[in-house]
Amino acid sequence: MELNWHGHSTWSVTVGDTDLLIDPFFENPNTEMGPEDFDPDYLLLTHAHQDHIAHAGEFTDATVVAVPELCGFLEDEMGLENHIGGMGMNLGGTVECGDAFVTMHRADHTNGANTGYEYDVGMPAGFVVSDERPGPDSDATSFYHAGDTGLMTEMKEVIAPYLQPDAAALPVGDHFTMGPWQAAIATEWLDVDHVFPMHYDTFPPIEVDTDEFVEQVEATGTHADVHVLDGDESFTLE
Known about the structure:
Elements: E1 2-5, E2 11-15, E3 18-22, E4 42-44, H1 50-53, E5 63-65, H2 68-78, E6 94-97, E7 100-106, E8 125-130, E9 142-145, H3 154-163, E10 167-171, H4 180-190, E11 194-198, H5 210-220, E12 225-226, E13 233-236
Parallel strand pairs: 3-4, 4-5, 9-10, 10-11, 11-12
Antiparallel strand pairs: 1-2, 1-13, 2-3, 6-7, 7-8, 8-9
Helix pairs in contact: 3-4, 4-5
């Protein structure tokens, strides 16, 4: 599985012959790429805040993976009519996306769409992307994109023991999400081998020193390796 961070919460993920793009927002200082550089098969969207869906409308050929309410908003506002299963998906579900399996889990955050109309855009979410369907006998390689979230006990009680991610991308920018200390606790609870900070340094309120995150993870005693990626840098998860 190939993981590539494009700043903020934007990731491209390749599983086999399938390309997925998560939360496309290229107006951030940690990428030199733009929508024209991608041709994803699937577009995974955690929630409707503009710093997560700003460039979603550029990918009309991709199949959208999001909660049904957000799918409806994207169809009305951006013309994105191709939804997984024809209707989107919801929290707790797993869908097959080409060579990948995508499991949706809740995120502790707000949601909203800044337009002149009132929309119900559903619950915010995170995704576990794996190369096998999760289950009691699964030996999948899997990557957890936590979306925008605060620390939540489901990381320890549900995601870690049952979805068993090998790697996690966690927001560390504080102010709107977890900061370095709580993200370090999340790392310990998730019991992952690899962790990547995201959602930081894009705007003044979320400027942080990622060394603090590295130090806090080390202080927990967890075995996870922290990878502070440069923008557009890739990592192979095996």
